[in-house]
Write a structure and sequence with these properties.
Strand order of the largest sheet: 3-2-1-4-5-7-6
Helix content: 25-40%
Shape: globular
Number of domains: 1
Radius of gyration: 14 Å
CATH architecture: 3-Layer(aba) Sandwich
Largest sheet: 7 strands, mixed
Low-confidence stretches: 1-9
Structural class: alpha/beta
Mean pLDDT: 92
Order of helices and strands: HEHEHEEHEEE
CATH topology: Rossmann fold
């Protein structure tokens, strides 16, 4: 159940669906939803068995909506206001980010996670960040989502 109100994300967009499908393929662990919007990905991750789940967004409306989305779905998500490009982020096994490519690439350069699921860009676009290697890709309706792993 999602009522995005003034926050971004109903869960119907191909990038959101692709992220959820890729998350479902991964080993469970701790997760950060970076730029959480309405909280669709954080809630889906919690329902899939990821824990603990952290969700951050710089928009106070998104933070409030995400907290409400988690509550109305009966899942535990730790929601906080944070700028994913500037603020300290929690160390997690997986980070998920469904935001534009330039932000994804900047985030990957600083996020303390070993695996990332990214989307928010067209299938013709590919995140390229030193220190990360592609593991999986899903394309839906002209959009793409990727699983990347930190190189050791």
């Amino acid at each position: 159940m999602v009522d995005p109100g003034r926050a971004f994300g109903t869960g119907a967009h191909p990038t959101t669906r692709a992220c959820i499908e890729l998350l479902a393929r991964l080993e469970r662990g701790s997760l950060l939803d970076a730029g959480c919007g309405s909280g669709v990905l954080a809630v889906a991750a919690a329902r899939l068995g990821f824990a603990p789940v952290f969700a951050v967004d710089s928009d106070p409306v998104a933070v409030a909506v995400c907290a409400d989305t988690a509550l109305s779905n009966g899942v535990d998500v730790q929601v906080a206001a944070a700028d994913v490009l500037r603020d300290e982020l929690p160390r997690t096994d997986i980070a998920v980010a469904n935001i534009e490519l330039a932000v994804v690439e900047t985030l990957l350069a600083r996020v303390p996670a070993r695996t990332a699921v990214t989307s928010g860009y067209l299938e013709s676009e590919v995140p390229r960040v030193p220190g990360w290697k592609p593991l999986d890709r899903l394309e839906l309706e002209g959009w793409a989502a990727d699983v990347l792993a930190r190189r050791h």
